[in-house]
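Many introductory courses stop at the sequence. We go one step further.
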Amino acid sequence: MLLAAGLAEARVTRLDVVSTVSPTFEGRAFKSGQYELLRMRASGELDPHSPFNADIVNIEKAPRNSRGLVEYTTDVHILKPIDLSKGSSTLFYDVVNRGNKLAMGNFNGASTNDPVLAAHAGNGFLMDQGYAVVWSAWQGDVAAGSDRVVANFPIAKRPDGSPVTGLSREEFTDTGTAPTFNAALVYPAAALTGGTLTVRQREGDPRQTPPGLSFTWVNNKQIAITRPAGFDSGALYEFVYTAQDPIVMGIGFAATRDVVSFLRNKTTDDAGQRNPLAGSIRHVLGFGSSQSGRFLKDLLYQGFNRDESRRKVFDGIQPHISGSRKTFTNYEFAAPGRFSRQHEDHMYPGDQFPFTYGLTYDPISRRFDGIMVKCRLTGTCPKVVHTDSELEVWQARGSLVVTTPQGWPTYIPPDVRVYAFAGTQHGPAATPARGICKNLSNPLPYAPSMRAVLSALDGWVRSGKAAPPSNYPMLQEGELAPPAAIGFPVIPGVTFNGLYNELPFKDLSTQPPTAGRIYPGFAPIVNDDGNAIGGIAHPFLSVPIGTYTGWNLRSAGNAEDEGCSLTGSYIPFLATRAERIAANDPRLSIEERYASSADYVARVEAAGRRLMAQRLLLQADYDAIVAEARGRVIP
């Protein structure tokens, strides 16, 4: 098929079945009946001259077939009702994270890449909604194995077929204490010569080349580093070298667009093989967690929510725990697995303006922009429910989602909702532990409200019933402050330094990039217990047994007092007033808060009912939370 301009239409040309499990989940049935798992492989083509693909970096350098088109392949896994008439006519697309399926863990409470056992369905939430759940690959550097969903994208070449070369930068930390360690490179070296290695103890320290620091080439994708004296396990080693063979990574956006569009709109592929969802899909929802949430926002920002027939791809999306970031994907020598934190990978790309869904002006880059500008111009914007843990406010500059680059409150479009789960970390800890952090990790869950928010997005898309109002710490509501001025209490044995992952303007024309002016950043104001006052509060935060934060600090021997990556803190209350006074802890003890276990449960019930009234908690989750509260022993 040719477009009016004479360009070939990008499309999925084949969708081949690799294997089928029917029924899956060992025959377990849900409200929409039994499910089956289809493992498939899609082949696609892109016209490098098409304006729909023109912004894919290096697509003009990708090898072409006899028709002048760029080819790629990707795994496609489909989990669908065996009887599609029992389904909801909604395709739920879970953006994989480094090839891994995450939605089953986020919503069903059962993480797996191979959903075949009855236990893999967890609570059955996604199946009970009747969704056809789909995964496909978008990241071209993920290795096969462990049932990961992977893709094969072309490598850019010069017109004469010689390799494309350029500077690439790697950073390594948490490397242990052995005298030497091996470090893997994302791209092969152009030659086993050259390269610059530096070390620094903390992100803000000057790069150094002290005596004793050296490296040797193991092969073209690995070096061996000899560490110098005076640096602990948390030190940052940075290696800049001339790499070759960049993957055309931006194809991941087009591949996602075209796979979803095919499943939504087509009946057969070019070989006459039937689309297994043909005629059954009316709505498409997209979900992505962490890296995958950043990818969804980047897909929207770069204009890939419109297919080459000018149709909307996703009707609604839920970018989860992305903060204000996008991805390091559509670049030469891209590294989509990298993302900035206060200590690690701080200066990598993927987090620059724009930060908001609405249009704002950036006085640093001197541009007007917004994540939804392109879809506004083409009438292809989805409904958006943006969800973050509190950690994203600290490590992913979440305040930039709700403020301008000048540090003022910003406009949130009417088709966007932003929610923050107060007092939570990136992914709740199954069991609180310290690891390399000073404080215990944070177990406060957010899955109950995640399910409620997804249900609200579904209703918004299907029936037009608007999702609940945004609930994110807001500057204008007195819920945000400069990070060092949030009012955190002085708790014996707990260090609070207000450390925040500051965002500088980055000049990416150099390696390493050069830092410019800092964008304003804010953090959640807290109450006397150290718990945030803004955002969606789980009943266990409204009726607390400790302090729950979105930040933690590294321990001695691990770049002490730097930010502890994606881990928050849990600081339990002491049991009795006598213990609290002896410890000089300003926070009330458990016995001073709750008269009895029954009193505690009653307060949890009241907090849960408030969330249900706001459509931020479902009945089943309310019941589970109350049951857990009843199992707790309150002195």
